[in-house]
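Office hours follow-up: a student asked to see two folded examples consecutively, so here they are.
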Amino acid sequence: RAFRADAPKPTGLGMLVLPDYGGPGHFYTELGLRCAEAGLDSLVIDYYGRSAAPPPREPSTFEHLDHAHRTTWRDLRADALGATAYLRRQQGATTLFSVGFCFGGRESFLLGADDGLDMAGVIGFYGWPVGPFLNDMPAPVDAVDRLRAPVLAIFGGADENIPASDVETFRAALASAAIESRVVTYDGAPHSFFDRTHERHREAADEAWSEVRAFVEAQAREVFPAW
C-alpha cells in the first residue's frame, strides 16, 4: 500500500517518502503532498500492508512496534522496487529520490546502494546508521562501499537514541568511500525533531527542509522546478 500525491505538472521527478516506524500518518501524507506541490510525484510507503488493517490507524492503539518487528528487509526492498517501478511506468518519473525518517531514514540510506533502484539521491532524517535495529535491515554504514547515489544525512545533536559517535562513524565511512554526501547535525535538536516536534524546533526543521530542497535541486538541476 502507498499514498499517492501527483505533481500538478509532470517534471520527471519522483519521491519515495519512508515514514518512521509509526507508519504513514498525517504528517507523512502531508509531506507527500508538499513534495507533489513542489513538482515531485510522490508515494508514501505503508510498511504494514501485509500485517495490519488499512489506514487510518489510531496512533494511541496501533501496535506499530509489533508490526515493525514483523517486517523484513526482503519485503521492504520489494516495496521500494514496486514503488520506483510505479513512479517510472505510471507517472513517467525518470529522476527518483527517497526521504525517510528514523526506521525510514535507515532504509532510505540503503536504497542508494541498490543497483535495482537507480536512485538520484537519498535523504535520511535520524536514520540509525550503525548496528541492528528492529528487524534484519542492514546497517547503512556496512553498505557505503555499494552506494551509488548521493546522500543527505540529517541528525539531531540532542538525539538520545543516536549518539554523536555513531554519526561520526557514518560520516567517516562515507568520506572513506568517496561518496558524494552531506551530513548535518542540528545542535539541541532531539530525535524526530522534524516530524514529531516540529513546532518546538521550528528553526532546525526549517533549515533541514532547506537542506532537502538544495540537495534535490543540486541532483536534478536541469529539470527541477521552483520550490
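And the second, which I mentioned at the end of office hours:
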Amino acid sequence: AKVMGPSFAGLNPASLEGVVIDDEAAHFTGRWESGGGLPGFVGDGYHYTGDASAVARFPISVATAGLYEVRLAWQPHPNRAKAARVEIVTPAGTEVRTVDQTQAARGAQGFESLGVFRFEVGRPAEVVLRVANARGIVHADAVQLVPAKAPPPGQP
C-alpha cells in the first residue's frame, strides 16, 4: 500500500489519539499479503497471513518515559485468528496477550486495549504478532500508544 500524499483510504493515523504505528512502519518476516477489503482499517490497508512462521514487529519509540496504554487494531472476519499471540516487549520484559480476531476489537475505532505498560526513552520496545498456533489468519493493521494517567485497579 503506497501512500500518495496525505489522503488515506482508511482512518488517518494522525487523527487518532496518542501515537499510532501503522503496518507500513512494521517489520514483517515470512509470507504476508497486503489488503484493504475489510473496512475500518488504519492508513492505506493492512497485512494478513496464515504462514505459521510469519512474524510482524511494530517498533515502539516514546518521546517521554511513562505509562502507556497499548492498543491493537484489526478488522474482524470469520477466517481470522481465534488465538493470535501478541507480545508486548518493554524494557521491563515481555508480556503476552491472546486476541480473537474473528471478533471485533472492543475499543474505539477498531482498537482493543492490551493493557498499560511502562516505556522508556531510547530503550527498545515493540509489539510482536506471531502466527504460529493462531488458529486462523493473523491480521496486522496498527498499534496505538496512549499516555495513561494511572494504572488501572489491580495492576501494580
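Two things to take away from it. The longest strand covers residues 111-119. The chain has a mean pLDDT of 92.
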